[in-house]
Amino acid sequence: MRSDEIRRLFLEFFEKKGHKILPSASLIPEDPQLLFTIAGMVPFKPIFWGKVDPVYTRIATCQKCVRTTDIENVGKTPRHHTFFEMLGNFSFGDYFKEEAIEWAWEFVTQVLKIPEERLWISVYKDDNEAYEIWRKIGVPSSKILKLGKEDNFWGPAGPTGPCGPDTEIFYDTQRDVPTSDGKEPTPANTEGRFVEIWNLVFTEFYQDENGNLLPLKRKNIDTGAGLERVAAMMQGVYNNFDTDLFAPIIEGICNILNVEYKKDEKIDVSIRVIADHIRALVFLISDGVFPSNEGRGYVLRRILRRAARHGKLLGANAPFLHKLVDFVVNKMGNVYPEIVEKKEFTKEIILGEEKRFLQNLNKGLELVEKVVRENNGKISGEMAFKLYDTYGFPLDILRDLAEENGYVLDEQGFNEYMEKQRLLAKSAAGDVEFTKRTGYEDLKLKSEFVGYEKYEEYSKVLAIKVSEFVNEAQDADCEIVLERTPFYAEKGGQVSDTGIIKGENGEFLVEYVYSPTEGIIVHRGKLKGRLSVGEKVYAKIDIEKRKATARNHTATHLLHAALRKVLGTHVRQAGSLVESEKLRFDFTHFNALSVDEIEQVEKMVNNVILEAIDVIVEEKDYDEAVKEGAMALFEEKYGDKVRVVKVGNFSEELCGGTHVKNTGEIGLFKIVSEGSVSAGIRRVEAITGLNSLMYLQRLENNWLKVRKVLEVNDEEVFRRIENMKEEIKKLNSEIKSLKQKMVDIDSIYKNKKVINNVEYIVEKFEGLEVDVLRDLADRLVDKGVDLVVLFDKVGEKVILIVKKKKSNQLLHAGNIAKELSKVLGGGGGGRPDFAQAGGKDFGKVQEAIKKLEEILREC
């Protein structure tokens, strides 16, 4: 049974059981504790927490997931993956243990038709209810294992959150594996024979930050069946990589890299790593994750470099990963249309990043050569880690180099540095899967945002946090949670509101507003006087800042639409910043915008502004909004009800931000900069309203200053500048000619010296152009000198020119320049006949000359 059929049968089965079938959520989760969607239940955590009421009480999904905690095991084991699909059925206060167990058994034994004798069950040791349900449906007690909390208690998916006992279904592969106790094989005493195919979690508790288990207001069901494992079971293979999910990708790898699968285990590991990682790369980039040095982008970069490294081990000397995107899209695009839509863009991102990595790899190879030369063939643990951390240089390749060349590699030292780095990273941000906690996750509070309609509101203080939560604060930097607030919390690229919150005995200056967890809005700032929990307060935002921000936010939507119309529909938002002074918009595009394209976009946006079109904001069902053509952006998180912001027939997007009521309020829209952010990502910055007026006034003032300096009118400015350029060019040429004439070449030639039958000239200068130095070196060599070395002082630094006669095969100008520049505290090199280098210390020129004499004596 192929994977597509398994996925379809699972969803159809639970649809018949009354479940709403939902598409997979993004790999970028709403949960602030998580970097990625790491389990099928992640999109529903607010429901499990009891913070949000469910629209549907029964749901089934096939959720795309990413985990990287065990990334080093990927490729080495049959079932470790970074990207995987999780089949799951969920109940929110509806059915519980009995139905969940019975339906799981029915699906496995009657739909998938797995023989009952091949199945085993585990339950939490104190969960007698689950045990009796399994017995009732006919599973013999000898095949039901009671295990401890480490085996059969799930969650939370993060430091805190919903959790509960679970029960698991195991499939017996019947592999001949020894048991740990010499008894009959079971999932508890055998490693590798039994495969867990389904986990049913009875989510009835909430674990707080102290590890306490608190009952949830409703009992829930959360199940997960890994599609890769189920496919392996149904296709009669032991290794997930041997299923149809990976077969076409592996075939593509073998064809592109000209390698064979299942001939050499070392090669197989690299093939499996690449096959796994390319799936993760395709899905992460399609969901809006881009390479960077922090957070999700860093994890993506790490996955890509690991895949590229294994390609290098298989002999790849050029980028190849982008060629594998087609194989992933062909296999999975019918289920996940987003990867089809982003296919070409994904290729560009991967290609650009892989090129940079290979460049770093080459730099690393040069550095390795230098290190082993300076350290008698040794690579210390510190240097190995530096190569890994700074250049992304893999230990595997270092190890291969060491074996091939007889270098000594301190792997133990490297591992010690890696462990220090891991501990530092963990202390700073928890596990790589998790972001930092805020302390608000466990509060049973809810804030209501009223800022779409109001700029001010009377409210009540629900919580105050200084360094910890307190009932009262006085004259302090602190955070405040209100029952109702007009303050917009930063999200979706829009900055937060600022303003004041006034109480009877205190005034709080709001500097920043954010939402650390679903349903809670936190105001951060400075308190003058006293405020207490439960106190009635008056909250008012900075209205002018809000209006300016709204102008820029609506303009961002118009900009997005205009870019798609001018450049093409491949343009998608890749990040944004909306504040009162300006807007910044990152988007997917592969080339710099031309002057003509920028003018087209500006004209299109300003035409919509001049038409004074009403901005319509409506609440709709998510599915309905998307069907009508509203764009969903990866930065925004959506529930079943969404806000649709529509500007006539020009723009329609889902957005939780604040906007103007009519495009005429925006004023003049002006693009002030356009540039590259990374491969395939461009950035535009623009201004609106009074900021555009001030920008034009600054330009006009500068123009008037230019006219005044040049003493010409508007029409004469450019002609005058062109004339000045020609004058400067002519003068520079005359200066160069004069400097060349000032150099007495005959006098310099008379100072030639001889060492070891090499006729050479060394001279020091100050303030000569490089062109003059090069010309002088050429003329001296033409007069018959074997070697010319010229030093020129530029401030405290030095420029070094080395030129040699081509017929002299004993000398190498590039190598001589490299050695002399080391003495001068710099670097450089060049061809055998000519080289240029630099140094930081002109005072060491005499020492460099002595080094030159040593080199000549040894040649």
UniProtKB/TrEMBL annotation:
Binding note for cofactor: Binds 1 zinc ion per subunit.
Region spans: Disordered: 169-189
Recorded coiled-coil stretches: 714-748
Catalysed reaction, written as an equation: tRNA(Ala) + L-alanine + ATP = L-alanyl-tRNA(Ala) + AMP + diphosphate
EC annotation from Swiss-Prot or TrEMBL: 6.1.1.7
Localization, UniProt: Cytoplasm
Pfam families: DHHA1, tRNA-synt_2c, tRNA_SAD
Residues covered by the Alanyl-transfer RNA synthetases family profile domain: 1-698
Keywords: Aminoacyl-tRNA synthetase, ATP-binding, Coiled coil, Cytoplasm, Ligase, Metal-binding, Nucleotide-binding, Protein biosynthesis, RNA-binding, tRNA-binding, Zinc
Function of the molecule: Catalyzes the attachment of alanine to tRNA(Ala) in a two-step reaction: alanine is first activated by ATP to form Ala-AMP and then transferred to the acceptor end of tRNA(Ala). Also edits incorrectly charged Ser-tRNA(Ala) and Gly-tRNA(Ala) via its editing domain.
Domains (record comment): Consists of three domains; the N-terminal catalytic domain, the editing domain and the C-terminal C-Ala domain. The editing domain removes incorrectly charged amino acids, while the C-Ala domain, along with tRNA(Ala), serves as a bridge to cooperatively bring together the editing and aminoacylation centers thus stimulating deacylation of misacylated tRNAs.
Protein name as catalogued: Alanine--tRNA ligase
UniProt source species: Thermosipho africanus (strain TCF52B)
